[in-house]
Design brief:
cell membrane, pentosyltransferase activity, five-stranded mixed beta sheet, glycosyltransferase, 7 strands, Glycosyltransferase RgtA/B/C/D-like domain-containing protein, transmembrane, two-stranded antiparallel sheet
């Protein structure tokens, strides 16, 4: 095992890290503008960040004018800085998360480099991990979602813990734990617990642990920004903050499926097995080898075990099931099999050079094949239809007529508009969209003389036809989901 505490990296390590970073950037930025903003999450985040820029209000999150307490502020701040710099466009929304996600593969390499001196294996593992279909299935690295950013910050905190735990700069790892807390909230406490429990159990492996003073300092640095933010939110939002952040978004996710996101106890097993069927078999086999190494007093594999348990058990207990909840556990599914097998068969590989060469050739061939197949899949999975509808519809709207009605287009709570529509219409094209429904139009609670155009879901065209006594319209453009109409006579 390399002397990780001195943080000595060889030239080949720096070379591999740079190659992995550039490779990651290439894939991410090749896809960054290929799809529209995703409803709901990505569109919501873009709306909130757009509001920050528009109103220069960095400490009160708002979604279409109403207070928002569901998430911590760091990702919104990064997105807002990007929008302020690059303008109101999809690229700006996604840019900070794309950059941060590009560090995932290099960090996987550095963690693997702690466990083995077989650098080509660490390099190949990092590529295979980065292009794995699970990472790119939901909330993938090229989107404006927060999960791969959160993974990158967590991996950085683990890397720094391993490399610097015996140095005076051990506390730097805690800084990045604090950033995970300011990104994904309570989940950051799981990351903190992984590191602290790993540290506290070192005496069981005949290793020296941190002093109580160091542990308290690590805790203080990790949680202080999060405590300040939530104290501010409590003062500002009071009961509404408690009801939304804690009751709805935290406790409700545990005891009931939030917004219909439910699943059986096999939800995550089935999800991983669906996208990567061989991965589960290899991983469960590696659990046996890892447990053997733990019994042999190899502390570094105990970290993997804690990592796996502290992520999987909570998401299994929760009644709300979402595919991206498993993302922080994904590195273990790749790191533990390869590294534990290499450790188990270390002497055999050293003794029989011909076998080592043949084994390495097979690994290179397999990793290359898997990486090519998965990279092709990444570029094939695109969805542009809704964005094309908005772009084409905008070309029909006169610049001097900004008002547009959205008729039952998946209208959201409290009169909020479908987030992606609001982003493209309001922030990117300076239109003034307003959500409406049949009752509002029937009872003439809107002055239709102010609106010349309506976007309607195709399924709701029949209910719109029932209002023919109030106004007549002409279809301008439609796709398989939406139709743009022009109000001709009121």
């Amino acid at each position: 095992m390399s002397d990780i505490n001195k943080f000595h990296l060889k030239k080949i390590d720096i070379f591999f890290v740079i190659i992995l970073f550039v490779f990651s950037l290439f894939i991410i930025f090749s896809k960054i503008n290929l799809s529209q903003l995703d409803d709901w999450d990505e569109g919501i985040y873009a709306n909130i960040s757009g509001d920050i820029v528009e109103n220069n209000n960095w400490f009160t999150q708002k979604l279409q004018g109403l207070d928002w307490y569901e998430k911590e502020p760091l990702p919104y701040w990064l997105m807002a800085i990007s929008i302020k710099t690059l303008g109101f466009n999809v690229f700006a929304v996604r840019f900070p998360f794309a950059i941060l996600s590009a560090f995932i593969a290099p960090l996987i390499y550095l963690i693997s480099n702690y466990y083995t001196d077989k650098k080509i294996y660490s390099f190949l593992l990092s590529i295979v991990f980065f292009v794995n279909p699970i990472l790119w299935n939901k909330h993938s690295p090229e989107t404006g979602n927060f999960d791969t950013m959160n993974l990158s910050l967590f991996l950085l905190s683990i890397t720094l813990y391993l490399y610097l735990r015996d140095s005076k700069k051990f506390w730097i790892s805690a800084l990045f734990i604090s950033l995970t807390l300011m990104t994904r909230g309570v989940m950051g406490f799981l990351f903190f617990s992984i590191i602290i429990l790993s540290e506290l159990t070192r005496p069981l492996f005949n290793l020296k642990r941190w002093s109580t003073k160091k542990i308290i300092l690590f805790l203080f640095i990790s949680i202080t920004p999060w405590i300040f933010w939530h104290t501010y939110s409590l003062i500002y939002g009071g009961k509404e903050y408690i009801n939304i952040y804690w009751k709805e978004q935290f406790f409700s996710r545990i005891d009931s499926p939030l917004q219909g996101h439910h699943g059986t106890y096999r939800y995550y097993i089935d999800f991983v097995n669906w996208l990567s069927p061989d991965l589960l078999k290899i991983f469960f086999l590696s659990l046996i080898t890892a447990l053997y190494l733990i019994i042999k007093k190899q502390w570094q594999y105990f970290i993997f075990l804690i990592w796996f348990i502290f992520i999987i058990v909570p998401i299994q207990i929760m009644q709300t099931k979402l595919a991206w909840y498993i993302i922080p556990a994904l590195p273990i599914f790749y790191l533990m099999p390869m590294l534990s097998f290499l450790d188990i068969f270390k002497k055999t590989l050293q003794k029989y050079k011909a076998f080592y060469i043949l084994f390495t050739i097979l690994i290179i061939f397999y990793a290359t094949k898997v990486s090519i197949i998965n990279t092709k899949k990444i570029f094939l999975e695109q969805n542009n239809s809704d964005k094309n509808f908005i772009e084409i519809s905008i070309s029909y709207l006169p610049e001097d007529k900004p008002n547009i009605l959205l008729y039952e287009t998946e209208g959201w709570i409290k009169g909020r508009t479908l987030p992606t529509f609001y982003w493209y219409l309001y922030f990117e094209n300076q239109k003034k969209p307003l959500y409406t429904d049949r009752n509002v139009l029937k009872n003439k609670r809107i002055d239709l003389s102010l609106y010349n155009y309506i976007i309607v879901e195709n399924d709701n065209l029949k209910t719109l036809d029932e209002l023919s006594k109030i106004f007549t319209y002409k279809k301008i453009y439609n796709d398989d989901k939406f139709t743009l109409i022009h109000i001709e006579k009121i």
